[in-house]
Design brief:
Number of helices: 13
Bound molecules: adenosine-5'-diphosphate
Oligomer: single chain
Largest sheet: 5 strands, mixed
Strand content: 5-15%
Helix content: 55-70%
Structural class: alpha+beta
Order of helices and strands: HHHHHHHHEHEEHEEHHEEH
Distance between the termini: 76 Å
């Protein structure tokens, strides 16, 4: 099982990725536990000094600290490495092996020295417990590389076996002696340590495999997303030029400047002109969406009167509303609502709100446009008595290509892009767009922009 898991990354193209991950994980956990290890070793060696021999304890203390300093330097080296290749991996692994041999040997020799000082037939409670704890600690925290873990455990296991075997060798007791019982117990516990290490190693390797799969999936999604964006923007650009000339030509023919078109042509001409406009709007929205997603919309902010802009938009909107038999009411004549905005972009947002209000209202409906002050912001609100929006579809409204339901898409023209783009534009102004609505009663969409002071005469001259 372990061999199978090991070969999974060590063969094939993921080997370098896996080695880098394992080394970094090893170093991170090693660094986090450095202090904890030093405290444990200090306490154990202090106790051994107090109960047995101070000089021996101090020698081992110095050796333990030297090992920890070496490990600390290795962890640092791993964590600061930026350029990864096979040579870096080899060198860093070699450093880990050296550190492992140093620290496992120092702990083992310390435990042997305590066991020797204790003499045979004492049970060796302290050195054996220390060795078992060190082995379990390694299984839990050093399972990133099978060979490193195996090397460390081999040193501990050899020492754990050496201590009772040495007693048996010196005392040569009969099989009924407790010394043999100690030895057998040690064998059972060793089995437990091996199983524990295997299980941590298998778990870690499986986790690594999942992480790799997730990273690959993320890369694939990113590539697909980039390809989609590139495709959309190329197609939209290619469509825009011919579409603009088709739309322009149809508008000229429909306008009658080239002579009144025959009556029979009026209807198909009207359908063609409307659909060419729709298509041109869609292409423009798609291009703008690509720009917004890439954060590439250019804004030309200036402090201006919001009311004046809304008036301009309303003038353009009224013929469309009249056509749909929608009455438009407004309080925007009152001046002095200043904010910093890009006229072209904010115009687009208000136009979108107005055309939605008209689109989703019944024949003979009303649209009310207001400007007011709200919590330090200038609020532009567009209210209608149309179909309204159900609470459970609220979350969809500002999403890309989102229309509340697909039957709407057929009943009401639209792309589901307008509000998504509007939200991006309003947020780029440091503002907020939202709505209140009740299904079957109507909706109020509003845009809040931070209020600005009216420009002084000097500002206007400077501008
Ligand atoms: P489009 O209008 O092109 O479908 P929008 O992004 O402007 O796209 O609007 C998204 C959806 O939000 C619309 O399809 C509609 O379902 C809902 N919606 C927007 N404005 C209103 C409104 N005033 N009344 C009811 N539903 C609305």
């Amino acid at each position: 099982m372990i061999r199978q898991l090991r070969s999974e990354f060590d063969d094939g193209k993921g080997a370098l990725w896996a080695a880098r991950r394992r080394l970094r994980d090893y170093a991170k956990i090693g660094r986090v536990l450095l202090l904890q290890r030093i405290v444990i070793y200090s306490a154990a060696i202090f106790l051994a000094g107090a109960y047995y021999d101070w000089r021996v304890a101090l020698v081992f203390y110095a050796l333990t600290l030297a090992g920890e300093i070496y490990d600390g330097a290795t962890f640092r080296k791993i964590l600061v490495t930026q350029q990864w290749n096979d040579t870096t991996v080899r060198v860093l692994k070699r450093d880990i092996y050296v550190g492992t041999v140093i620290s496992a040997s120092v702990i083992s020799l310390f435990c042997i020295s305590v066991a020797v000082q204790q003499g045979p037939e004492t049970g060796h409670f302290m050195p054996l417990f220390m060795l078992f704890s060190a082995a379990v600690f390694a299984a839990i925290n050093n399972h990133h590389f099978l060979p490193v873990l195996a090397l460390r455990l081999s040193i501990y296991v050899a020492t754990i076996l050496y201590i009772p075997i040495r007693d048996l060798w010196i005392v040569r007791p009969p099989l009924s002696s407790e010394l043999w019982l100690h030895f057998f117990t040690v064998l059972f516990v060793l089995g437990f340590i091996v199983e524990c290490s295997r299980s941590f190693l298998v778990g870690y390797t499986a986790m690594l495999r999942n992480r790799r799969a997730l990273e690959e999936e993320h890369e694939r999604t990113k590539a697909a997303y980039n390809a989609k964006t590139q495709f959309l923007s190329t197609v939209s650009h290619e469509l825009r030029t011919p579409l603009t000339s088709i739309k322009g030509s149809l508008e000229i023919v429909s306008s009658g400047v080239l002579g009144a078109p025959p009556e029979k042509m009026a209807k198909p001409l009207d359908i063609a002109t409307r659909n060419a406009r729709r298509l041109a709007d869609l292409v423009n929205d798609l291009l703008l969406l690509q720009k917004a997603e890439a954060g590439k919309i250019d804004y030309f902010f200036e402090t201006a009167d919001v009311g004046a802009l809304v008036q301009e938009v309303l003038e353009r909107f009224r013929p469309y509303a009249d056509n749909k038999n929608i009455s438009v009411f407004t309080n925007t004549e009152t001046a002095d609502h200043w904010a910093r905005f890009d006229k072209v972009r904010l115009d687009q947002v208000i136009t979108n709100l107005l055309s939605n209000a008209a689109k989703f209202s019944d024949d003979g409906g009303e649209v009310r446009v207001k400007i007011s002050r709200h919590d330090g912001s200038i609020r532009i609100s567009v209210e209608d008595d149309g179909i309204g929006i159900a609470d459970n579809t609220r979350h969809k409204i500002f999403e890309e290509f989102s229309q509340v339901d697909s039957s709407n898409a057929r009943k009401f023209e639209g792309t589901g892009l307008g509000l998504n783009i509007s939200k991006r534009i309003v947020e780029a102004h440091g503002g907020k767009i939202d709505f209140l609505s009740k299904l079957g009663v109507g909706s109020t969409f509003f845009v809040d922009l931070p209020e600005e002071d009216a420009p002084t005469q000097d500002d206007r001259v400077a501008a």
